[in-house]
Design brief:
- The longest helix is centred in the C-terminal third of the chain and has 22 residues.
- Strands 1, 2, 3, 4, 5, 6, 7, 8, 9 and 10 form a ten-stranded mixed β-sheet that branches.
- The chain is built from 15 helices and ten strands.
- It is about 45% helix and about 20% strand.
- It is of the alpha/beta class and about 325 residues long.
- Strand 2, helix 2 and strand 3 form a beta-alpha-beta unit.
- Helix 5 runs parallel beside helix 11, helix 9 packs across helix 10 and helix 10 packs antiparallel against helix 11.
Length: about 325
């Protein structure tokens, strides 16, 4: 009924805990674990093989002989989907892990009770791996609910934790162009929510390890400005493509999100005066206070931005 989608590359220090979170799931349905090792060089594949030998009925790993990421080959479309047999699939990268042994069962039951919805997420604990301290709880709502598509669009890629996603497989087998061209965490969320919103469970059931070696979060720390600009440009193209695909149904939410992207770009360039343009006022007010403060600090002073990042790395509140 469920296929677990896991990507791994040089995750030796994390993959065992990740896989334990999978095999320890208690369900009343069958599930499979498809782990793609992208030619790791640190022994990650050996640990995956241990689990494959111990759990041959549920482990269905893929051991790449050539690194797929460096060739811009989509693991999801080219390797996972052709093998996935589940009605649903759940996502967790090899450096993160699940903490609730009933996570899959809870999300399965919730989705079965809401056949009109194609995606489910839950609260996630974000941990700084360098300090071991919790720096945030990724939770867009206080209580379990259905979150409208407009909020998912405006929320951006960090709206919910990627390792909380539980999705209806057929929706992604028949994905539209806006998703195929920009298959980010963000577009996984948007595409899933188009059917009737995002089903959200307030239980915190997984951990997102922040700043693991080689991860997106670490690379963004090192190349913040360049990566933010590139991602921003891709998101703008994706949102315009989404607007066309949905015939303008979410045009207001998309327009507000595009303004937010403009604001983010101005903040990255430390253009504080430009951020005061009245056209940004309504969008700025929609942001949580923490994000408003973060954006203003980033826009005002490069030195202050570096100070805040240093503080976060030491495990301060975020």
């Amino acid at each position: 009924m469920v296929s677990v989608y896991c990507t791994a590359y040089n995750h030796r220090d994390y993959i065992r805990k990740c896989l334990e979170g999978f095999v320890n799931q208690k369900t009343n349905f069958a599930f499979e674990i498809i782990v793609n090792d992208d030619l790791s060089k640190d022994g990650t594949a050996d640990i995956i093989r241990e689990f494959e030998e111990k759990y041959p009925d549920i482990m269905r790993p893929i051991y790449q002989t050539e690194n797929q990421y460096s060739q811009n080959i989509s693991i999801f479309f080219n390797h996972f989907l052709p093998r996935a047999r589940g009605k649903y699939f759940a996502i967790c990268e090899g450096d993160d892990y699940w903490t609730d042994e009933y996570k899959l069962q809870k999300q399965f039951d919730a989705m079965e009770a809401h056949p009109e919805i194609n995606i489910c997420a839950h609260a996630v604990e974000q941990i700084n791996v360098r300090t071991g301290k919790t720096i945030a709880i990724i939770a867009p709502r206080e209580k379990s609910t259905v979150i409208p598509t407009e909020d998912v669009i405006f929320g951006g890629g960090g709206f919910v934790g990627t390792n909380s996603l539980f999705l209806r497989t057929d929706v992604y087998r028949n994905a539209p162009e806006f998703f195929k061209n920009f298959a980010y965490d963000y577009t996984f969320q948007i595409l899933g929510s188009l059917g009737g919103g995002m089903l959200y469970i307030s239980d915190c059931m997984s951990v997102y390890n922040y700043l693991t070696a080689g991860s997106y979060s670490e690379r963004r720390e090192k190349q913040a400005k360049e990566m933010a600009k590139s991602f921003n440009e891709s998101c703008i193209k994706m949102l315009n493509s989404l607007n066309e695909y949905t015939d303008g149904r979410y045009e207001k939410a998309i327009e507000e999100t595009l303004l937010l992207r403009e604001m983010s770009a101005l903040a990255e360039d430390h253009k504080f005066k430009e951020l005061k343009d009245p056209k940004y006022r309504s969008v700025y007010k929609k942001l949580p206070i923490s994000k408003r403060v973060k954006m203003r600090i980033k826009a005002m002073s490069p030195a202050l931005t570096r100070f805040v990042r240093k503080y976060i790395r030491k495990g301060g509140s975020r």
